[in-house]
Amino acid sequence: MSEVRGKVLKHGEQTRTMHWVHLVAFIILALTGIGFYFNIGFINNMFGGGANASMVHRWAGVVFVVGPALYILLNFERFARFVDTITTITKDDIGWLKTMGGYIPFLKGEVPPQDKYNAGQKMLGLIIIIGCLLLILTGFPMWLWRAVVPPAFLAFCYSVHFWVAAILILAVCGHFFLAAIHPKSRVEFASMMIDGYIDAEISAHHNEKWFNTLEEVKE
Amino acid sequence: MSIFREKGTFTRRQFFKGSGMLAATIVISGVFAKFGYDAWAASDAYIEKRISGLYTLDEKMAIRKSHQNPEILQIYKDFLSPGEVKPVSEKAHHLLHTKYGQDIPELIKELHAHQHDAA
């Protein structure tokens, strides 16, 4: 590991705010969705009953759309860089996936240098973007057009919404485990959830390719 | 202490990828929104036609109010309130007012009790 001193600003203020807004909206959506889909009394009661849970779910869905939409409009450059990073798959990313970044004990091998996001995070980013789009495209017809669209289409929306939500909840649980609990990677937790900074030494190790493109500012 | 930041560079490739993702999202959402709007408009148009059809049928009827129907008036005069037209006569109340829910068993008993009267 290279000897680097200092801090790296990995995520700006607006990125962190958007992440928080999206996270809180997602948790409310997941809880209310599970509550009224499976008719689980104690979850529904946290939101004032099944009917209210359904209403909270719909308006949390609006926040879930408006939060990132505002972020993209106000920070198009950051969004474009993010999209570029997660859609650029190189040999190093394939190498990371073969060794799973060293997170799985029986998969041995050298982990190649990574971008700002490693290959796993790139996969998660793509899953979240496509998943959110599917949830939005199936969710709003279920709310606004339920009386006017064909019943078969509505049933299709329900199925897609349910299974995409199930996949996203599992993906976010995995993301939470790696970002907040796993001892190797939880060092990144504060960079998204608190002040945006991460130790330069850690960044130089985990995101070497990206770190080499940064500029150093003395403070 | 050293602080490391991203350079402010923004490449053409990043611009096209970001714009492409945004444009694809807008197009897909737009197509969906158009589909929903058309379904809504078609439903509204159908409801308007149905309303118009019902009003047209109603306007074409020779007798449009039940209390002015000569047959009904005759039934009252002959049977429900003999000699006069009295809509809430006792017989009319028992025979024409319906019951529902938990009152139905009681109604069935009452009808059984009066079945010979009607004959």
Give structural notes.
The complex is a heterodimer of chains A (219) and B (119). The model of chain A has no long low-confidence stretch (mean pLDDT 89). The two termini of chain A are 24 Å apart. With 219 residues, chain A is mainly alpha-helical. Chain A is built from ten helices and three strands, in the order E-H-H-H-H-H-H-H-H-E-H-H-E. Chain A has one domain (7-211): Fumarate Reductase Cytochrome B subunit (Up-down Bundle), CATH 1.20.950.20. Chain A is 68% helix and 5% strand. Chain A has helices at residues 13-37, 41-46, 50-74, 76-87, 91-99, 119-144, 151-181, 189-193, 200-206, 208-211; strands at residues 7-9, 197-199, 215-218. In chain A, strands 1-2 form a two-stranded antiparallel sheet. By secondary structure, chain B is mainly alpha-helical. Chain B folds into two domains: 8-61; 66-118, no CATH class. Helices cover 69% and strands 3% of the residues of chain B. Chain B contains four helices and one strand; from the N terminus they run βαααα. The radius of gyration of chain B is 35 Å and the shape is elongated. The model of chain B has no long low-confidence stretch (mean pLDDT 89). The chains are: A mainly alpha (219), B mainly alpha (119). The interface between A and B is medium-sized, with 36 and 27 residues. Chain B: This is Iron hydrogenase, small subunit. Chain B: Residues 41-104 form the Iron hydrogenase small subunit domain. Chain B: InterPro entries: Fe_hydrogenase_HydB, Fe_hydrogenase_ssu, Fe_hydrogenase_ssu_sf, TAT_signal.
Order of adjacent strands in the largest pleated sheet of chain A: 1-2
Count of the separate structural domains of chain B: 2
Number of helices of chain A: 10
The proportion of residues forming helix of chain B, as a percent range, comes to 55-70%
Structural class of chain A: mainly alpha
Name the overall outline of chain A: elongated
**Mean pLDDT value of chain A:** 89
Number of DSSP strand runs of chain A: 3
Percentage of residues in DSSP E strands of chain B: under 5%
Secondary structure category of chain B: mainly alpha
Count of discrete domains of chain A? 1
Radius of gyration of chain A: 20 Å
Distance between the termini of chain B: 107 Å
Per the CATH scheme, the topology name of chain A is Fumarate Reductase Cytochrome B subunit
How far do the termini of chain A sit from each other? 24 Å
Quaternary organisation = heterodimer
The H-level CATH homologous superfamily of chain A, spelled out, is Transmembrane di-heme cytochromes, Chain C
Radius of gyration of CA atoms of chain B, rounded to a whole number: 35 Å
CATH class of chain A: Mainly Alpha
How many strand segments of chain B? 1
Low-confidence stretches of chain A: none
